[in-house]
Amino acid sequence: MKKQLIISAFMALFLSACETEPIPGPAAEPGSTDEYAGHPQNQIYRKELQAFRRKWNIPGTIMLLKRGDDPVWIGADGKSNLEYQTDLRINDSFRTGSITKVFVATVIMQMKEKGQLRLEDNLAAVLPEVVGHIPDAHKITIRHLLAHTSGIADPTNDDLQYQLDLLNNPSRRVEKSTDELLRRYVYGRALVFQPGDQFGYSNTNFWLLGKLIEKIRGKRLPAVLEEVILTPFGLTHTYLDRRDDRNVVRGYNDFYANGNLMDVTAIDRADSDGQANGGLISTAEDLLKFSEAFFGGKIIGRASVQEMMTIQPVRKGTNEYGLGLESYSSPELGMGWGHNGTLLGVDTNWFHFPDAKATYIIFNNNGGGADKSFVEKLLK
């Protein structure tokens, strides 16, 4: 998710009125943070990781690097929980934010392969219950939803009421279903632009895709992900369903830009857990398993992967997005594909560069953002 500054501006104003939650301690003892000490690049990678984390005032960072046929390296530096001063571990679970979208898009593409849907199917046909609530539903296709070219509004980023509801009562927000979110924040709003005209990132697109998967498959989205991706490919520490998991890394944000970090985990949990747009919880190791299976054509066929990696045309402006996949052009590694994920207290990145046979994954528990270009030089 790409949170706008509006939520930071109102956090200070409403912080005293916001519901708070006790900060739990970890449920397990910390493990080793340097299991890759024997890696030939360990000292270099670890030094760069530590410098990066400290430069950007991040409580804790996990970094995974994979280059060609070299062995994978994973490192962790800093803290997963500032209240308890818990050391971050390389296998700690993070909220991944919008990296979730790639998993959901992969399921949609598998359903396309099975003939359960077509990308040109329109919203009115596949989800008729939205007709009369979302304008021009007959013009919006599944492809538009995957590519963020639908024109449907994105309340998570541009709706003040959504932000205030989230801040003032996160426990109530986390209980809301996708249908409730659509009714309260999306239905009845005008399109931002006509379908296909331009790129406009909207988390609503993936709320609708999650609904579509559940309707066609007859199962809850977490169960579908388990069946299609998580169980077959050994992602044993990845899940979408809402859990009271005390081992998930806490999230922080420096709202006043004064170096003082606030724990915003309750808000991140309310804004994402269980949702098709950004609720996946995973580990760096699990995400690498997904990356290799996905780009290796093992989850969906290579033709479907290539289609997801095709930047979608728009009639106005430019676009750098495929079908549920972000593109990233690196001067060091060439074109990369993956996704970023941003919550108030989380900043995650996963990108694979096919030509360079390189992959990096970075999990930060400070949602303020950070320049990660140093990683590309390490992987060159």
Automatic annotation (TrEMBL):
What start and end residues bound the annotated signal peptide?
1-19
Q: Which GO terms describe its molecular function?
A: hydrolase activity
Keyword Hydrolase among record annotations: yes
> Which ranges carry the Beta-lactamase-related domain?
51-369
Give UniProt keywords alphabetically.
Hydrolase, Signal
Checking Pfam families in the record gives: Beta-lactamase
Keyword Hydrolase among record annotations: yes
Q: Which PANTHER family match?
A: D-ALANYL-D-ALANINE CARBOXYPEPTIDASE, D-ALANYL-D-ALANINE-CARBOXYPEPTIDASE/ENDOPEPTIDASE AMPH
Protein name per Swiss-Prot or TrEMBL:
Class A beta-lactamase-related serine hydrolase
| Species in which this protein is naturally found | Larkinella knui
Identify the taxonomic lineage of the organism of origin: Bacteria, Pseudomonadati, Bacteroidota, Cytophagia, Cytophagales
